[in-house]
Write a structure and sequence with these properties.
75% of the residues lie in helices and 3% in strands. It has 443 residues and is an all-alpha fold. It has a two-stranded antiparallel ribbon with strand order 1-2.
Length: 443
């Protein structure tokens, strides 16, 4: 009985970050949607120019003779979004260490689906343009915005099978990993090898600090800022530094549960033994030891992900949407070749690629559909995965400029909207009703 109880407790502890992630993403998706609508309304109002000028305001940071001066929008995309990518790195590592990507057989389906969801949209985009301007934006429709997807999935409540949530979450994380690789390999130029070498030297120093048992967060923040600056100067997009720092974050706790329980059980005796009021410092020492041990029974990865995720969901991503989603919805931008190509890639390429490659995974690589998930649900999830938004707009900013960039953003908004409508419609009809789920549980 005790062993079974411990097993349940362990399972609950392992699933806690996943549950927390879904709750934050669902609520964050609502905030993100509101900020997107606000940005679009302002960008198409009489105050459009004033709203646009806000993000062009210069903002400088000085360190002695060193001065970094960029527009507010640039700081958001290269600075704040580094924290977003740091959390993405944490999510990827969590999935590899303790999630679906840990089990090879379970990982086959979402990995295949993610590959299809990246390859086919890129091909659709390239085919749609057929030599027109904007060919460098082929990676724009490859992305999936997990905040919007989870937010829309939450509308169905208990009708969504747990396996479908796991599938689309893992797919989106693999999708993010693919986007990160593309950003580093394709959308980085004029590489300064000296600065890049300093950046990787800093990453090596982070590993050394981990090995030495340094636990002070400010030390890592300071070194991380230096690494970010080195990547910024090197020509590699600085958000890549955030991802790498996330991947280097330790996934195991410094103290095990047994150490914590041992200290807790011994504390009463230690407390009683200190009878002299002048020995209050010793009592404080015992309490501080308990606090430190309690904190270190949670891995740095889990602790950072839980603490930073709300900031990313409710501040960084909404601010990014305000700064980047405000585009004029002129008919010329909607019908521009780049806009059509992005819309086509997201709304059609994504579901086709996800379903096709999922089928190939099941047919030839031993993958299995999650429990209570059929091909119709996979199709609905495939359409929802066509909501690219955050990462798509981010890549558009790297790949395009001028009118092409506006068209890329408009295409992202149009394609994401179509994907959301069709995905919600498909899932509404194919997901089991709540009463059916309850009956199955009773049986």
């Amino acid at each position: 009985m005790s062993e079974q109880k411990n097993k349940v407790t362990h399972i609950e502890r392992m699933s806690r970050p996943f549950t927390h992630f879904l709750h934050i993403e669902a609520a964050g998706g609502v905030v993100l949607l509101v900020c997107t609508i606000i940005a679009l309304v302002l960008a198409n109002s009489p105050w459009a120019q004033v709203f646009s000028n806000i993000w062009k305001l210069p903002l400088a940071i000085s360190f002695g003779e060193l001065k970094l001066s960029h527009s507010l929008g640039h700081w958001i995309n290269d600075g704040l979004m580094t924290i977003f990518f740091f959390v993405v790195g944490l999510e990827i590592k969590r999935e590899v260490v303790a999630g679906e990507l840990k089990e090879k057989r379970a990982a086959i389906l979402p990995i295949m689906a993610a590959l299809g969801g990246m390859i086919i949209p890129a091909l659709f985009y390239t085919f749609s343009l057929r030599g027109s301007e904007g060919a460098t934006g082929w990676a724009i429709p490859m992305a999936t915005d997990i905040a919007f997807v989870v937010g829309f999935l939450s509308l169905f409540g208990k009708r969504v099978p747990h396996g479908l949530k796991i599938f689309i979450l893992t797919l989106a994380i693999v999708d993010d990993l693919g986007a990160i690789i593309i950003i580093a390999a394709v959308y980085s130029s004029n590489i300064a090898l000296g600065a890049l070498a300093l950046g990787f030297l800093g990453l090596g120093f982070i590993l050394l600090l981990n090995r030495l048992g340094v636990r002070q967060i400010p030390v890592y923040v300071f070194v991380g800022m230096l690494i970010w600056f080195a990547f910024l100067v090197s020509g590699i997009h600085p958000t890549i530094a955030g991802v790498l720092l996330g991947l280097l974050t330790p996934a195991s706790a410094w103290h095990g549960d047994s150490s914590f329980l041992e200290i807790v059980s011994s504390l009463p005796n230690k407390w009683k033994s200190v009878k002299d009021r002048s020995a209050q410092a010793l009592r404080r020492s015992h309490v501080n030891h308990l606090i430190t041990t309690a904190r270190e029974t949670i891995s740095p990865l889990e602790r950072l992900e839980v603490s930073l995720h709300p900031w990313v969901a409710f501040f960084i991503m909404p601010v990014f949407a305000l700064a980047n989603a405000g585009v004029p919805l002129a008919m010329g931008a909607v019908t521009a070749p780049v806009s059509i190509a992005v819309s086509f890639g997201l709304a059609l390429g994504k579901p086709v690629g996800i379903v096709l490659f999922s089928w190939l995974g099941v047919k030839f690589f031993g993958a299995q559909l999650p429990e209570k998930v059929n091909w119709s649900a996979i199709l609905g999830a495939g359409f929802l995965a066509g909501i690219g938004f955050t990462m798509s707009i981010f890549i558009a900013g790297l790949a395009l400029d001028g009118d092409l960039l506006v068209a890329g953003k408009v295409g992202t908004l149009v394609g994401s909207t179509i994907s959301a409508i069709i995905g919600l419609g498909v899932l509404f009809f194919v997901l089991p009703k709540v009463s059916t789920v309850s009956t199955q549980v009773v049986r």
